[in-house]
C-alpha cells in the first residue's frame, strides 16, 4: 500500500483491497479503518516511529472483521516534494489468504507468431 504520512491510503493493490475489503477509489480509506483498536499506538504514531526501512509486527482487521497478525515493512519515499510511505505486509504465519484464492487466474496473451496464417 502507498500511504500518506497521516495514514491515508493513496493506493492499494488488488491483493490488499481483497484482503482488507478496501474500496477501489483513491484516498477512500485510511490505515485507521483496518487498525487493531487494542493496539498501544495509533496508526499515525506507528508510522511516525517506524525506522526508515524497518519491520515490525502488526495486527490489522481483514475483511470479515477478524484480526490477523502481519509483519510490516515500511519504507519512506519522496516524490514531487511529498513524503509517502510504502507499507508491505507479510502474513506472519506464512499461510495464504482465502480472499486471494477467489482471484481469477491471469489469461495468457496469444502472440501473433503463434497464430496460423490464412491465405
Shape, per Cα inertia axes: globular
The fraction of residues in strands falls at: 25-35%
Strand order of the largest sheet: 3-2-1-6-5-4
CATH class: Alpha Beta
* CATH topology category name: Beta-Lactamase
What do the pLDDT scores average to? 77
Oligomer: single chain
Would you kindly provide a written description of the structure presented here, covering whatever features stand out?
It is built from three helices and six strands. It has helices at 14-20, 43-49, 98-101; strands at 2-4, 8-11, 29-30, 55-61, 67-79, 82-91. The protein has a single domain, classed as Beta-Lactamase, CATH 3.30.450.20. The model has no long low-confidence stretch (mean pLDDT 77). By secondary structure, the chain is an alpha+beta fold. The chain has a six-stranded antiparallel sheet with strand order 3-2-1-6-5-4, with no helix packed on it. It is 15% helix and 33% strand.
List keywords for this structure.
3 helices; alpha+beta; Beta-Lactamase; globular; 119 residues
Could you outline the blueprint of secondary structure elements for this entry?
Elements: E1 2-4, E2 8-11, H1 14-20, E3 29-30, H2 43-49, E4 55-61, E5 67-79, E6 82-91, H3 98-101
Antiparallel strand pairs: 1-2, 1-6, 2-3, 4-5, 5-6
Amino acid at each position: 500500500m502507498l500511504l500518506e504520512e497521516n495514514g491515508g491510503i493513496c493506493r492499494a493493490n488488488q491483493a490488499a483491497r481483497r484482503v482488507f475489503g478496501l474500496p477501489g477509489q483513491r484516498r477512500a480509506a485510511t490505515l485507521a479503518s483496518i487498525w487493531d483498536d487494542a493496539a498501544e499506538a495509533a496508526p499515525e504514531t506507528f508510522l511516525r516511529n517506524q525506522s526508515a526501512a524497518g519491520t515490525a509486527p502488526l495486527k490489522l482487521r481483514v475483511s470479515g472483521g477478524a484480526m490477523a497478525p502481519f509483519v510490516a515493512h515500511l519504507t519512506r519515499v519522496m516524490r514531487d516534494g511529498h513524503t509517502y510511505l510504502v507499507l508491505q505486509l507479510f502474513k506472519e504465519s506464512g499461510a495464504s489468504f482465502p480472499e486471494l484464492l477467489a482471484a481469477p487466474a491471469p489469461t495468457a496473451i496469444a502472440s501473433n507468431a503463434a497464430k496460423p496464417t490464412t491465405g
